[in-house]
UniProtKB/TrEMBL annotation:
SUPFAM superfamilies xrefs: (Trans)glycosidases, beta-Galactosidase/glucuronidase domain, Galactose mutarotase-like, Galactose-binding domain-like
Signal peptide span: none
Protein name, per record: Beta-galactosidase
KW Hydrolase (keyword) present: yes
Keyword Hydrolase: yes
EC id: 3.2.1.23
Alphabetical list of Pfam families matching this protein: Bgal_small_N, Glyco_hydro_2_C, Glyco_hydro_2_N, LacZ_4
Originating species: Streptomyces olivaceiscleroticus
UniProt-annotated stretches for the region Disordered: 1-20
Compositionally biased region (Basic and acidic residues): 1-10
Catalytic reactions on record: Hydrolysis of terminal non-reducing beta-D-galactose residues in beta-D-galactosides
Length: 976
């Protein structure tokens, strides 16, 4: 067959060639504060979508083209979120055939036009047209003249347009292809969202204006001096009034300064003046170094309490406003987070400005991921193919040049999950040369040949411990191994926050605090990427992969954040806040009556003078006394032991606890005075043993095949409680099933047993109950049952021993597993249905939020009150949720105040909801959960831990719920 010349490899169209683009200006620093004119081109543009890229009609770029039939489109924005086409989610698989750099004919292409008026007084001369970010390839015309094209979605691109601008009306035309060669480099785990999603603007460039500036501001912790040098083209002067500095660019000055750290984000206002422009700079003095095997800033080891942050908004995708960025950062600071990895691309530059201002350590990551090539053993990986190196270098340059002046950026990251190769090494070499002041990060190369820190994702606790001891498995190459073993260690991703979880955070934190090499990490990830949708009847919910009819998708793997899509904190964030608290408050002395508290400053730079320490003494959750603890302004790493005043009521009547909190003494940029940073609780005496219920009445035969015992009525045939205090109840019966969480389900590639699938295989979701005996034995009613799934000999023998004092009813439950259980149990407890109007819950125990065995750090003992509805955690994909831990007693009341009180021996997990576990398990989205006429209560003696197996290690052995004999009891009373 003749080769068709028009389709030879050499002839690929611009959007498929491997070049980074054509016609754009070299990348420079982002300089928001300038006295040169700017004109925003954001607004409602005109838009037309074509299904393919091969549209020949370029006439649309002509100013006079009639676009009146086109739709309106908000820019910045993604067209797929504005009614044109649909978003699509894949994790690692490319949603197009892997044949780099080619793309299928179906390549949605959006033609954009924007007519704008240039102000009459806009100065003649140079003007730059700046695109903050366009996914994935844009070809640009101004007033009919083509400027060029570019790829590199989350990177800025600028064109010189001064000669093309005209006073009055101008027309900008942009053709955007959803798919391009660049898409092969942008295989990040997120929605594919084409469009002009960051701002577009004109920047006037006066004669003698700043072309580029590089601020070098180091800090010498030995002398307390900062050294400033500002390199600029063209030359000019820099003034820093607060430091009395006035120096030429290129010249350096050393003066005493207050350093910049994430804890103390001290910025100095400065001005750079060149012949044509005045630019505001905000200078933070700090020095980053890898020294003595540690990552240090200003001479001190850092502990990174980080998150991975994608740019995401549930309605606008990656088009974020400054308010949304600020909201993220305020939430992070308020939850003790001190570091962000900008996974997996440079964020909007305004975000970094905010990081400078509010104080966060930033790992700025390049817009590069080629994960889909892993499926073919990295064959044809662009990262190891010289033809792609210019594109890779272009991405490295665009990031470093744009972001080089931010004190918050302490490391450059080459990208994410792109294997290894010559292109990556070339990027690293260029970055080192251009900016030797920042260490390099990249996780995907185990040899660490190009990096300055050893970084891993999802390593389990045991491995992190080995790394901490520097006894990890060696690399085959001895020299590389020795080098890697000398590097500091970070977990660039850990604790997969998908659905309920992550579990095991405290256990990681203990390792980071024990081994200096382990310098913390970044939870995966900050936010659930659920897209805001409505059902046909207007019920809001969040969509995930597959909800837009994608033929290939990865479901709800895109919802794995510490905040829900609308940026409300999930229990995982509350847990993380407690685990990473920068001050530790703990008991010293005997467990039951410590009497003294140890306060430790876990910060790296600041003393404790910004905090005050209120305490409170509570009995049965009721405040009895309070005051303020005088804590000295401890330096980082220091601790002090302080006595608490002796309780006035000793011995207390009930369970007595001290709660000591660390709160902000004064307003800060990120939270108001009084904001709680850390807390600790100490018992003030032994926990009282619940009063035994004296059985005073005996079971007797009732009417219609029932047995009565005190306030309880039982079905004589099954022995199941059917009434309590004159109201119908269902159960309680033994229950071991929970609606598997994402972490229970586990990811197929994770090692170890995946609980969810195993539980279903055993049949825990379809247990059968058999009654073996319902007998009176003195004052007690004994009910023996066997609870087991079909097709197996596995099961549980259960003995219920019911007694009553006439007013209350107590059941003692003894459970004996039968058979060789191949998996842990989801839960072990009783399930019971009660009246649906028992909707107000009060309890004394752990709260106020959800907690499971390995997610319980944030649960504090107190008296809490929430409605049944408020007890639910609205995970984007419904799953087990809402347990309250360590519950001593709980009361459920009707609006008229009557209700039911449940006391546990020992304390228990309480879960209450308006649907059954089976309904919860079947639900795919929140609107699938429809309240029934019952409240279903789970009174659990135990729960299996949560772990992080949706993309990490499973439940640690100490949090496993293995099938084993157990006894526990509950007392039911009418609420008083
Ligand atoms: C890791 C990715 O880096 C991240 O983008 C995200 O996909 C995360 O996993 C899971 O949510 S890669 C994984 C295969 C370990």
């Amino acid at each position: 067959m003749q080769q068709d010349e028009a389709h030879s490899d050499e002839d690929v169209p611009y959007y498929e060639d491997v070049s980074p683009g054509s016609g754009a200006l070299p990348p420079v620093a982002w300089l928001p504060g300038s006295d040169a004119r700017r004109l925003s081109l954001n607004g409602t543009w005109r838009f037309r979508l074509s299904p393919t890229a091969t549209t020949e009609d370029e006439g649309f770029a002509r100013p006079e083209y009639d676009d009146s039939a086109w739709a309106g489109l908000a820019v910045p924005g993604h067209w797929v979120l504005q009614g044109h086409g649909a978003p699509a989610y894949t994790n690692t698989g490319y949603p197009f055939p892997v044949d780099p750099p080619r793309m299928p004919d179906e390549n949605p292409t959006g033609d954009h036009r924007y007519a704008f008026e240039l102000p009459a007084d806009w100065p003649a001369g140079a003007t730059v047209l700046r695109f903050g970010g366009v996914e994935s390839c844009a070809r640009v015309w101004l007033n009919g003249t083509e400027l060029g094209h570019f790829k590199g979605s989350r990177l800025p691109h600028e064109f010189e347009v001064g000669a093309l601008l005209r006073p009055g009306p101008n027309v900008l035309a942009v053709r955007v292809h959803q798919w391009s060669s660049g898409s092969y480099l942008e295989d990040q785990d997120q929605w594919w969202l084409p469009g002009v999603f960051r701002e577009v603007e004109l920047r006037q460039r006066p004669e003698g204006a700043v072309r580029d500036v590089f601020v070098h501001a180091g800090y010498d912790h030995r002398t307390g001096d900062g050294t400033l040098r500002v390199d600029c083209a063209p030359a000019g002067r820099v003034t820093v009034p607060e430091l009395g500095l006035d120096l030429a660019t290129g010249e350096s000055a050393t003066v005493p300064v207050a350093p910049w750290t994430a804890e103390t984000p001290r910025l100095y206002d400065a001005e750079l003046a060149t012949p044509g422009e005045r630019v505001r700079l905000r200078i933070g003095f700090r020095t980053v170094a890898v020294e003595d095997g540690l990552l240090k800033v200003n001479g001190r080891r850092l502990l990174l309490r980080g998150v991975n942050r994608h740019e995401f908004h549930p309605a606008h995708g990656r088009a974020l406003t400054a308010d949304v960025m600020r909201r993220d950062l305020l939430l992070m600071k308020q939850h003790n987070i001190n570091a962000v990895r900008t996974s997996h691309y440079p964020p909007h530059p305004a975000f970094l400005e905010l990081c400078d201002e509010l104080g966060l350590w930033v790992v700025d990551e390049c817009d590069l991921e080629t994960h889909g090539f892993a499926q073919q053993g990295w064959r044809d990986n662009p990262v190891d193919d010289e033809r792609w190196t210019p594109a890779l270098l272009d991405r490295a340059r665009r990031m470093v040049e744009r972001d080089k002046n931010h004190p918050s950026v302490i490391m450059w990251s080459l990208g994410n999950e792109c294997g290894t190769g010559r292109g990556l090494s070339a990027m690293a070499a260029w970055m080192r040369e251009r900016d030797p002041s920042r260490p390099l990060h990249y996780e995907g190369d185990p040899s660490c040949a190009d990096t300055d820190v050893y970084s891993r994702m999802y390593a389990d606790h045991a491995e992190v411990e080995r790394i901490g001891r520097r006894t990890e498995e060696p690399l085959r190459d001895a020299a590389l191994d020795a080098r890697r073993r000398s590097l500091p260690f970070v977990l660039c991703e850990y604790a997969h926050a998908m659905g309920n979880g992550p579990g095991g955070l405290s256990d990681y934190q203990r390792l980071f605090e024990t081994y200096e090499r382990c310098q913390g990490g970044f939870v995966w990830e900050w936010i659930d990427h659920g897209l805001r949708q409505e059902t046909a009847d207007g019920i809001p919910y969040h969509a995930y992969g597959g909800d837009f009819g994608e033929e290939l998708h990865d479901g709800n793997f895109v919802c794995d954040g510490l905040v829900f899509p609308e940026r409300t904190p999930s229990p995982g964030l509350v847990e993380y806040k407690k685990v990473i608290e920068p001050v530790r408050i703990e008991a010293v002395g005997p467990d039951t009556a410590p009497g003294a508290v140890r306060v430790t400053n876990l910060q790296d730079f600041a003393d404790l003078s910004a905090l005050v320490f209120p305490w409170r003494y509570e009995v049965e959750g009721r405040p009895v006394a309070e005051g303020t603890l005088a804590v000295p302004p401890l330096l980082p790493g220091e601790s002090a032991e302080l006595k608490l005043p002796p309780p006035a009521d000793s011995p207390p009547v009930g369970e007595a606890l001290w709660t000591v909190r660390a709160v902000l003494a004064e307003d800060t940029a990120w939270a108001a005075a009084g904001h709680e940073v850390a807390w600790g609780q100490l018992p003030a005496g032994p926990r009282p043993v619940p009063r035994p219920l004296t059985s005073a009445v005996a079971p007797r035969r009732g009417e219609g095949g029932t047995i009565a015992l005190g306030p309880g009525v039982f079905d004589a045939a099954t022995g199941v409680l059917s009434g309590f205090d004159g109201r119908a109840v269902t159960g309680p019966r033994l229950d071991v099933w929970r609606a598997p969480t994402d972490n229970d389900e586990g990811a197929p590639w994770q090692p170890g047993q995946r609980c969810g699938p195993e539980w279903r295989r055993i049949g825990l979701h379809r247990m059968r109950h058999r009654t073996d005996a319902v007998v009176a034995a003195g004052d007690a009613l004994i009910v023996r049952t066997r609870v087991a799934p079909a097709a197996t000999a596995l099961g549980f023998r259960v003995v219920h021993r019911w007694t009553s004092d006439g007013a209350a009813l107590r059941v003692e439950v003894a459970v004996t597993p039968e058979g060789d259980w191949p998996a842990p149990l989801p839960r072990l407890g009783l399930r019971m249905g009660v009246d649906g109007d028992l909707s107000a819950v009060r309890w004394f125990g752990g709260g106020p939020g959800e907690a499971y065995p390995d997610t319980s750090a944030a649960a504090r003992v107190g008296r809490w009150a929430l409605s049944v509805d408020e007890l639910q955690t609205p995970y984007v994909r419904p799953q087990e949720n809402g347990a309250r831990i360590g519950v001593r007693w709980a009361e459920l009341r009707r609006p008229d105040g009557t209700g039911l009180r449940i006391e546990g021996e020992p304390d228990f997990f309480l879960t209450a909801r308006r649907w059954t576990t089976e309904e919860l398990d079947a639900a795919r989205h929140t609107p699938d959960l429809v309240p029934g006429d019952r409240v279903w209560l789970h009174l659990d003696h135990a729960q299996h831990g949560i772990g992080s197996q949706s993309c990490g290690p499973g439940v640690l052995s100490r949090y496993r719920l293995d099938a084993a004999p157990a006894t526990f009891a509950f007392t039911f009373r009418p609420a008083e």
